[in-house]
Amino acid sequence: MRLTNLYAQIRAVGVNYNQTVKAIHTNFNDRRAVALLARLEKHTQELTVLFGQVVRLTEEFNRRWSVE
User: Fold this and answer.
1) How far apart are the first and last CA of the chain?
2) Chain centroid offset of residue 40 CA
3) Residue 27 in contact with residue 40, Cβ under 8 Å?
4) pTM
5) Number of Cβ within a 10 Å radius of residue 22
6) Measured between alpha carbons, how far is 5 from 25 in angstroms, rounded to an integer?
7) What is the pLDDT of residue 3?
8) I need a labelling partner for 68 at 20 to 30 A (CA). Which of 38, 45, 46, 51 fits?
9) CB neighbours of 1 closer than 8 A, spacing ≥ 6?
């Protein structure tokens, strides 16, 4: 159940990300948009590292607790 909720939250992050990028392009001039997108990219890289940790921990959990 919790993994399903986590998956839904991850999908929501993707939707919000796309909406954010579109809003930046729509509402800011090119120079400001580039600066904002650079900041967004930095945070996206941090989020990618966290997602990698989630995957690793999930695999470790499955290895320890799966019944075979």
Assistant:
1) 21
2) 11
3) no
4) 0.71
5) 10
6) 31
7) 73
8) 51
9) none
User: What angle do the packed helices 2-27 and 30-65 form, to 10 degrees?
Assistant: 170
Tokens standing for 55? Answer: 């995957």
User: Which of the residues in the chain have pLDDT under 70?
Assistant: 67-68
Residue bearing tokens 């695999």: 59
SS (H, E, C) 3-51: HHHHHHHHHHHHHHHHHHHHHHHHHCCHHHHHHHHHHHHHHHHHHHHHH
Tokens of 68: 């075979």
- Sole residue written with tokens 């986590």: 6
